């Protein structure tokens, strides 16, 4: 997403890459490897590291984004990152309060071409992103700030469900 939706994407990554509501301890076998790898730090690592669900906010990476913006086309920076990082089995979550953010629509098109399912998180009428998505979650608001306020409980619910599914 853009603006506040970009911040939301970073927030989502934070919830997925570490424990959200559950403590996600590393498996015992990995804990043992950590302790073998470093006698001094291994135990602490084993106690503190948490299993994560791989997630990347495609709105960061300033050097890449600005290089692509300068050298190619700024509307395609998210699509380029999706093309570089994405693989079969991934999911693309496109966040756009209007559902009509061109850069997100380009990224959704790239995702579809890569056979990566697209989930849209929007407001208003869902816009073109809802039409392009495999699943569209459209919150019932028109004003940007209200849409963003309703996106928070939606993506927290998604994070909770994912955490339960993968870390039960």
Automatic annotation (TrEMBL):
Any one GO BP annotation for this protein:
carbohydrate derivative metabolic process
Matching Pfam families: SIS_2
Q: Where is the SIS domain?
A: 1-168
Quick one: signal sequence residues? none
Q: Which InterPro entries match?
A: GmhA/DiaA (IPR035461), SIS_dom (IPR001347), SIS_dom_sf (IPR046348), SIS_GmhA/DiaA_subfam (IPR050099)
Molecular-function GO terms, alphabetical: carbohydrate derivative binding
PANTHER family according to UniProt = SEDOHEPTULOSE 7-PHOSPHATE ISOMERASE / DNAA INITIATOR-ASSOCIATING FACTOR FOR REPLICATION INITIATION
- Protein name, entry field: SIS domain-containing protein
Species this protein is from: Candidatus Caccovicinus merdipullorum
